[in-house]
Structure formats: C-alpha cells, structure tokens
Amino acid sequence: MLNSWKYFAATMAGAHKVTLHTQHGTQILQADASAIGRFVFDGPEQSFLGDWHIELSKDSPDAANLQEAASRLRDTDIPVAFPTETVYGLGADATRSAAVRGIYSAKGRPSDNPLIIHISSLSNLRRLLAPKTPSVSGLETPPDPVPPIYYPLISRFWPGPLTILLPLPTPSPLAAEVTASLPTVAVRMPSSTLALALIHLANVPIAAPSANASSKPSPTTAAHVLHDLSGRIDLILDGGPCGVGVESTVVDGLVNPPVILRPGGVSIDMLRSCPGWENVQVEYKDGAETRTPRAPGMKYKHYSPNARVLLFRGQMDAECAKRYLGKGTRIGVLTTKTWQKEPLQSVSRIPGEPSTSTVNSHVINGYRRAHEARECRGSEPAIAEIMPSLMPVPIPSAQYSRIELSDQDIYEVWTVGLGQSTAGIARGLFSALRELDQKGVDIIFVEGIDDNEGHAAAAIMNRLRKAAEAEIVL
Ligand code: TXA
Ligand code: MG
C-alpha cells in the first residue's frame, strides 16, 4: 500500500497534477474543481435543477482526469470512487447490473442494502423516472414522477446533502441491484461541483454508497478510500477532503406524516421549516434496533473502528476511565465541545514525555452551496466562481502523551480535539476515528454532544452511537 505520508506530500505538491499508482494497482487521479472548466445553464431555471452543460478547459490535467473517471463509469464494471460534499462515494452506472454488482463486491456490502442514485439535474431525473407511455395525441406531457411534497425540499436543499425516496416506475430503467427489490429508489443531487460534473459527463445516473469497506467509518479523503479499497477498485478521483463530513439526510415523503430515515447534513429543524414538512417524524433508531428499520442500511454494524468505542455525556475523569482500562491499554480520546484541555482530569503526566500538538493543514474543497453562489453572481458562472478555490482547513491530528493514573500504571494516550463548532466536528469525525485506529489504540473515549446543537448534531450522535458499544451518561 502507498505510504500515506508520500501520498500526503504528493497531494500538497499542488501545482503539479499528480497521478498516483499504488502497489496494488489502484490509481488516484487528482481533480481540482476550480480548474476543470465552466458550467453553462441552458434551461429556464438557470440552475443545476434544470438543463446545463459544461465546457471543459482544454489542456487541463484536472479536466482530463475527470473525463477519465467518467469514461470508466460509462464503459467498465469496476466502480470508481469520487468526492461529494458529504463523504466519498463508490460509483457505478445505475442502469447496468454488472456495474452495480461491482459496488457490492468491492465494499463487501450485503446485497439487501439498497443504494442511493446520484443525479446531476432534475430534468434528467424526470426523464429517467417518467413512465414511457406513448400518448395518444403525441402532445401530452407525461406526469411528473416527482411527488409535489418534495418540491419545497428540492428548491431549498438541492443540490446538497439530502436524499429523497421516490416511487420506482415499472418497468424500471435502473438495475434491480440498486433498489434491492424495494418499490422505491433513493435519489440525491450532490452539491460538489466535481461530483455534478462527473455524473453529467458519465451521462448516466450513478449508484453510489459511501466508499468505505462495509462497517468502517465513511471516507472523507481519498487516502481513506485507498486504505479500505486498495486493490479492490482501479480508480479514485481525488478532489480533497469533504466539506460536510457526514452523509446525507434520507427522507421519505411518500408516507404521511413524512419521516427521516437517516439523519445527515440537513437537520430536522431545517426540514420542518419547509411547507408540508412541519410535522416530519424521526423514523431511525439511534440505539440498538428493536424492529426492522425502513432504511435497510441502518440495521448493520456501522462506522466501527477496530478499537472499542465508548461514548460519554458529561465530564469524564481518571476514576471513570479506569473502569474500562486493563494493564497497558492504549487509550484514544476524542474531544468536542467541553473536554478541551484535560479530558482525563486528576492524572499526572509523565515528565519529559512528548506531547506533540500538530495540526495538519490539509487542503479542502471550499464547500459552498452552488445555488447560494449563483444567487449572488447571476447565471453561467465559471466553476471557480461557484466553488471558491481550494482553501486550507485545519484537520486536527492526534496528540500523544503518557499519563499515570492513581494506581501508578502508565498509559499511552492519543487525543484528537475536534473543536467546538458542530460543522467542524462533523467534518473531522470519521477522519479522527480512522486516525486513532491507525495509532493502534485499544479503546476510544468520545465526548458526545447535544443532539440539538446545530445542523449536523443529530447525524454526529447517530454515527457515534452506531460506532459505540455503550453511551455512558455521567
Ligand atoms: O451522503 C451520502 O448519502 C453518501 C454519498 C456518497 O452520497 N452516500 C451514502 O450511501 O451514504 P450509503 O449507501 O452508505 O447509505 C444509503 C442509505 C442506507 O442506509 C440505505 O439503506 C438507504 O440509504 N436507502 C437506500 N435506498 C433506500 C430505499 N429505497 N428505501 C429506504 N432506504 C434506502
Ligand atoms: Mg455508508
């Protein structure tokens, strides 16, 4: 496997577009969204919801890499990993069974867990799902396959981290493997301009789960994808770290009242502010499942690092920590809003031992809702105008220390501070769990947050509860 530091150094080389090959043959192609070309809006909507096309920059290595990824999606059965604003997805042509089966086998995903299809325009979605009934006069327009309940959400949150359930038409243009025999299909339009451009160029709907090995935390960088799927896929399109960091919110508006099947980047309060969604209900379970979940994926072990994860509410201290420690247990600590300084209070640090405090300044795709930018700038903006150029966002890395608890046993501790902003916690969460795993810790103590503390708070706690063996209220 490619040494992750070499990979990081190559990524940071910046000016030179690098194609990386791993020893196992998985290629990483870099694509800077701001250097691929220019979007042109063709429809009356003058937005991604209508018709649009892209004028690719000639001689741009980023555009060439993007085209390579699109042609692999079109022409091969081996899935391609690509960035979205939420997490990296593992994509395949949703209309071809062999291609979709490639996703399940690369991830080791159970075949009864259906996939989200990713689209690049609302008009394409209508064309895809409109029943192909020949009209008598030849003039009638087919009924809109998107139920009216969804339009308030679509106009506000698409493109963006929201997935809606739609009735699957018969006959269906989608491969049966996408929906795992359900009568509905989950659909989302990502706001990552790289993802939108890729789907548009592939010219097919793209089925894509998160690009992690099944049960592992979702990937928010190309390096995470490589760690899980090296040798299992041929190509990863690297657009930098994901801006949101947790997956999309999945909603079902086909039932009354509508329900949230998975919490994500769009919060319940944001949904409730939309007409028809004031009474949206929570259908997912955060703790142990007691009945068959409506979103099949929610029943599986998820987001699990190798280490034991214990989720805490309240201030943890040494006395409390000791209950979970054996001799020489290596400890990971993940702090959020309040465990800022000394999560393991009343312990003595071993003098002279390193306590490295490093912050890696990774480069992240500046995530901004494309339609917000459009409102400010009018139509036909260059991609560079919609998405601000790559900007550095600090992703905290683990600090090492050695501590002595009152029993005189000495423990090694790696601490990741995710900061106090809910958006920052969401962005760094999966990365932090993966990093602590790589340090080889045996147990991870996590500081939980209030479910209602901002946009992605419920999603953060949902993922943590699924990763944790217990939630402990102190
Ligand atoms: O942000 C995201 O949604 C990411 C990126 C790549 O777009 N994708 C993602 O996909 O998280 P995945 O496969 O990891 O999660 C999809 C969730 C699963 O819980 C699945 O069971 C549910 O959506 N789902 C898919 N189709 C469904 C359907 N027809 N009915 C109910 N739930 C469905
Ligand atoms: Mg997933």
Automatic annotation (TrEMBL):
Pfam family name, one: Sua5_yciO_yrdC
YrdC-like domain boundaries: 63-266
Catalytic activity: L-threonine + hydrogencarbonate + ATP = L-threonylcarbamoyladenylate + diphosphate + H2O
EC number(s) stated in the UniProt entry for this protein: 2.7.7.87
Protein's UniProt keywords contain Electron transport: no
UniProtKB keywords: ATP-binding, Cytoplasm, Nucleotide-binding, Nucleotidyltransferase, Transferase, tRNA processing
Subcellular location: Cytoplasm
Family matches, as PROSITE patterns: YRDC
Top-level lineage group: Eukaryota
Matches recorded under NCBIfam families: L-threonylcarbamoyladenylate synthase
Family, similarity comment: Belongs to the SUA5 family.
Protein name per the record: Threonylcarbamoyl-AMP synthase
Gene source species: Stereocaulon virgatum
